[in-house]
Design brief:
The chain is mainly beta and 83 residues long. The chain contains one helix and three strands; from the N terminus they run αβββ. The protein has a three-stranded antiparallel sheet. The chain is rod-shaped, with a radius of gyration of 17 Å.
């Protein structure tokens, strides 16, 4: 069970990467430090009514109990339209 100061990753990709790094199930993943950075672009076709979106996110979760950290990179691509 996680202590009050532990961080449980919300992203399924970062928790999967952390679990693979230390060889446990995803339900057991906690860490002491979590960092993430995201960058994205929007290409508007018809104002805000129609757009393509692309982005990339990098996350790291440090777990000092197992002396390891999990890293995950996620690429996003989407199309949205509102009418």
């Amino acid at each position: 069970m996680a202590a009050d100061e532990d961080i449980i990753p919300a992203s399924r990709y970062s928790s999967r990467a952390a679990a693979e790094a230390i060889g446990v199930s995803r339900g057991e993943i906690v860490g002491e430090e979590h960092h993430s950075i995201y960058a994205g672009l929007n290409w508007y076709l018809c104002g805000h009514n129609s757009k393509f979106q692309a982005g990339i996110e990098y996350e790291t979760l440090d777990n000092e109990t197992y002396d390891t950290d999990g890293d995950a990179t996620t690429f996003w691509l989407g199309y949205r339209m509102y009418f």
